[in-house]
Amino acid sequence: MTLFNLLEKIKTKPGLYLGTASITHLRMFIVGYRFARAEMGIINTEAESDFYKNFQPWLQNRLSIRTVNAWDKIVLLTCIDEKAAFDYFFQLLDEFLQRDPNRDLDPILSESSSQDAQKIA
Asked: 84, 20 in Cβ contact below 8 A?
């Protein structure tokens, strides 16, 4: 089972997996899921690695929010409560998964990445 299969199940029955439809509970569940898979030596799929690495910067760019807060808190900043943030997360996740991963996330981030790559080369 991949992360995204599990997220689909959580989306339809959040109470079964999280107790309540909460963005904070969802993030903690994902952190635990990721930890358990790592402990068992299960390698992430390319899509899972992309989510873990790029969702937060994509989200910050998408919502024009610069912060050190985790992605659940960023989504919560834009919503009235945990349930609304939970629902909004799935809309954002769909957008993230449908994006062109080769498109620059943020010109500033891309520029610094480009400069770092030049330093390495």
From this structure: no
**Does the model's pTM come out above 0.90?**
no
Cβ atoms 66, 60 nearer than 8 A = yes
Using CA atoms, how far apart are residues 55 and 49, in angstroms rounded to an integer? Answer: 10
What span, in angstroms and rounded, lies between the C-alpha atoms of 67 and 32? Answer: 23
What pLDDT, in 10s, does the model give residues 53-81? Answer: 999 999 999 999 999 999 999 999 999 99
Report yes or no: 86 and 21 within 8 Å, Cβ to Cβ.
yes
Residue 66 CB neighbour total at 10 angstroms:
11
